[in-house]
Write a structure and sequence with these properties.
Chain A: It comes from Paracoccus isoporae. The complex is a heterodimer of chains A (about 725) and B (about 325). Chain A has 15 helices and 31 strands. Chain A is an alpha+beta fold. The longest helix of chain A is centred in the C-terminal third of the chain and has 23 residues, at about 510-535. With about 325 residues, chain B is an alpha+beta fold. Chain B has three domains: about 5-50, Uridine Diphospho-n-acetylenolpyruvylglucosamine Reductase, domain 2 (2-Layer Sandwich); about 60-115 and about 160-220, Uridine Diphospho-n-acetylenolpyruvylglucosamine Reductase, domain 3; about 230-320, Enolase-like, domain 1, CATH 3.30.390.50. Helices cover about 30% and strands about 20% of the residues of chain B. A five-stranded antiparallel sheet of chain B has the order 4-5-8-6-7. A three-stranded parallel sheet of chain B has the order 1-3-2, with helices on one face. In chain B, helix 5 (about 90-95) packs antiparallel against helix 9 and helix 12 (about 280-290) packs across helix 13. The longest helix of chain B is centred in the C-terminal third of the chain and has 19 residues, at about 300-320. The relative contact order of chain B is 0.13. The chains are: A alpha+beta (about 725), B alpha+beta (about 325). The interface of A and B includes residues 121 and 648 of A. Bound molecules: flavin-adenine dinucleotide (FAD) and iron/sulfur cluster. Flavin-adenine dinucleotide binds near residues 31, 32, 106 and 115 of chain B.
Chain lengths: ~725, ~325
Amino acid sequence: MDFNEPAGTNPADRGTVLGKSTPRIDGPLKTSGHAPYAYERHDVAEDQLAGYPVFSAIARGRITRIDSAAAEAAPGVVAVIRSTDMDVLGKHGMNVVPHFGGDEIRHYHQAVALVVAESFEAARAASGLVRVAYDAEGHADYDLSTHRDTAMARKAEPDQDVGDFAAAFAEAPVTLDETYTTPCQTHAMMEPHASIAQWDEEGRLTVWSSTQMVNWLVEGLCSAFDLDPDQVRVDSPFIGGGFGSKLFMRADSVLAALGARATGRPVKVALPRPAIANNTTHRARTIQRIRIGADRDGRITAIAHDGLSHTQPGGDGENSTAQTPFFYAGANRLITPRLVDLHLPEAHAMRAPGEASGLMALEIAMDEMAEKLGMDPVEFRILNDTQVDPGQPDRPFSDRNFVTCLRQGADRFGWADRNTTPGGRREGMWLIGHGMAGAYRGALTMNSGALVRLRPDGTAVVETDMTDIGTGSYTIIAQTAAEMLGLGVDQVEVRLGDSRYPVSSGSGGQFGAPSSTAGVYAACVKLREEIARRLGNVDAGSLDFADGRVTASGRSTSLAEIAADGEITAEDKVAFGEFQDDVLMATFAAHFVELAVHAGTGETRVRRMLAVCDAGRILNPLSARSQVIGGMVMGLGAALMEELAIDTGRGFFANHDLAGYEVPVHADIASQEVVFLDTLDPASTPLKAKGVGELGLCGIAAAVANAHYNATGLRIRDYPLTLDKVLEELPAI
Amino acid sequence: MREFSFERAGDAGQAATLAAGDTGAKFIAGGTNLLDLMKLEIETPSRLIDVTGTGLDRIEQTDAGGLRIGAMVRNTDLAADDRIRRDYGVLTRALVAGASGQLRNMATSGGNLLQRTRCPYFYDTNMACNKRSPGAGCAALDSGGFTRPLGVIGISDHCIATHPSDMAVAMRLLDAQVETLDAAGNSRSIPLEEFYLLPGDTPERETVLEPGEIITAVTLPAPIGGHQAYHKVRDRASYAFALVSVALVRQADGSGRVALGGVAPQPWRRAAADAELPNGAGAVMARLLDGARPTAQNAFKITLAERTLAAMLAEAEGN
Ligand SMILES: Cc1cc2nc3c(=O)[nH]c(=O)nc-3n(C[C@H](O)[C@H](O)[C@H](O)COP(=O)(O)OP(=O)(O)OC[C@H]3O[C@@H](n4cnc5c(N)ncnc54)[C@H](O)[C@@H]3O)c2cc1C
Ligand code: SF4
């Protein structure tokens, strides 16, 4: 199905199942421990061996020798695979640094060998016996702040230079010029990267893995092992979180495949938690200079955002300016995303790449600007709302209800009642503050395919290589098919994550929910057409599907009767047309936060959070809420605690386990409220839906930071807002 | 994890006898620290002696009017004990500020005292660490090292790690004594003040325990009353080790005691600092942290300790 114009009314609008809060259909499997996660798939292949990697002890240089004799002789060991025994293996186009092969070390904890043994314990014990000698490269500078001069423009995004920023900024009566920094972050998903690999006699490879994008892993494995796509099968039905860390091939699948090839037996490999922060990808650090000029009424006349981040040579880093060309009005704009090569581990996508970091800065800047103008920050944002691309005013937003988010949020939160004097409200030992921020996240769509089977018993099966990374894909796909075929959710079986199924959008960039359901919609439309044909070439548009039956010109037939002679299948794919480039598609939110800062110690406790979200049709309010509150928790972590600590002498992340890298725990989260506006975006997909998985994270950290300022009167522009940054300036006790 | 043998001891004497003369032997209690370290091959015992069946799991009254806490009493049970909650409130508060419910169900009094440092480089076996491999160097102290969580006082040029226990800070405040037994049947009672060694040039030696000597109990003197509080400061609300923790007993006349966690290789307390308590937090910390040698990353701990105590005193006065 070509989606070449905004959607009109269609069967998905009925809203009998879609749009209704629906518990996860895979919930019982998960809560009873029966959902098969990659590392525990003991039943898929017999005689599995365990592989345990050896990771580089240096950040940069060459391997001069790998002595594996002692490991090979250790009990239970079947094979040791050394990086130096082979050329650099191919990687996926999205990866920056190769995963294995050769003698070059490009980052700390790069995999340099794999020990394969009869048990996990034997492999791990023997991995400690592998001796690796290095020729380390001398000291490098790992501090982003010293590199601004060597910064390059980004490949992916050109600068935005509209009007005359310099002149407008110089003339503006009210201006702001501040610099903000965000640290490196790690995804810290629950399930580590894990794969089981097996080769058959014909040289075909099967990998049971944990990946967000099945097809990209197929492509990556083809590149690493010189295979054709039809020689590779990837199966990834359940994923214990990814947040971008599992978008592309990672060392686990490559090592498992190498181990299996060397031993002729299936091999499983999981990346140990302490190796994940340095071996895999992370969100890059950013340094962002923001300048805003406004007239006295608060109208923005000039805005500039310079966003610096870092990458291994060849990568993209973090574009913290992503939202700034589009979020607020202003005729004169200068947006300059910049990048430097830094030999830290590979920086890459982490949940809401770009906007998550960018809004951490921009939305503090907006708060500071509102204060300079003497305006309510909500009103300041409303005044500078835009319904068109400010740099290209003939390009409208497809559906933008940011102002409604702001107004509703302020009402519900009781924003008007807050104390507006920073540091002016104290309850005992606690300083109380309120803050808000806006959120913007682009609404990408990706072509997505699916196959629908109508079984002789009148129930349906959906197959697509779409993944459920904990987001609820199983359920919204079942809802989509149920809506389209007039079935109950329990009459739809959903099969995901297998490369034998049609290629889908996969999960990432919050495009998964809208895109994959659109693909299922397309396949269902095709199935409806086939049913229409079988009912005597009636007009498919006139069919009414309800309660397991289809009615055509007054005649009702059960789906079971229609499929009585054998399963009916229909496969299709949604292809999003170029018309989408003529509009701006995005999601919006307004976040409100109340918190308390301990006047003595500077500890921060968030008390209350509210998000009002505008993201088109909400397919399943229950799982959408779960996505948004999860994002808010992550944003709270970004605001208050999350930071990969760089050892600037050696060039690696020193706090590389979950004891050292702190994410919020239950005690950090108090009340969370989420409201979805009842909106539809016909330009986005046939279901008029957009994603929410990343929206909840965007802006929240700045809302926390602004509330922290309101509580303490101290403006921190360097995340995370740990207590050491305010201690010296807190009031006397 | 290396191969090891596993035996169960029926009483403390048998445990000490089994361990005698075997440098590869280690006692295992709750295992919440030792097993983690074995998986990473930071601890590599060849023999484990399970001491959980030694019957040392009771809390009894002592003749001196205090309590004798068996080395196997679980942290959860200790924190919940009525007598501890009533008379040694600071200990309950310190215990529940540590780890998680599940871990406290396993962790024992003896094992808690002997848990090892949380220095990130101690945990990363690629890195030089004098505590792990004496003489190897200290990666934390190298240029560019990450030292924010590490110690500011009592440290040396060879190691700046802290002792991570919360329980031990409260026990130090309460003048606890550690009771031990060796294979020859000799028992000792060691004041907690003398139990932990400072790193000096042998950071691998952390306590005065001799090889094979088993902790049988921790005794608390008679209750001292007063307002008892424990404030643990960290970057998140729970389930993290202390940046700084402050244990306080304050009597109605303003006198009292102060001990710190998160700043030193042992629970940190000085008599001269206690004496300053009537003069306020600044006066206490001037004595308690006199001679501190923080790094640029962890110098905030000095201010934090003082402000935390000041807030606690303000709250105590409010009561
Ligand atoms: C995730 C995590 C978070 C934690 N957070 C905190 C925290 O916030 N605050 C805190 O204080 N602690 C914390 N801990 C540490 C925890 O308190 C300790 O692991 C626990 O107290 C150790 O007790 P155990 O009985 O399990 O000791 P084990 O692991 O069994 O033993 C520890 C050591 O003591 C020795 N040993 C044990 N018993 C005896 C004995 N009777 N005589 C002689 N030697 C003995 C062992 O040989 C070993 O060397 C945390 C631990 C984990 C894993
Ligand atoms: S501070 Fe101590 S524990 Fe940490 S690396 Fe140095 S010697 Fe090892």
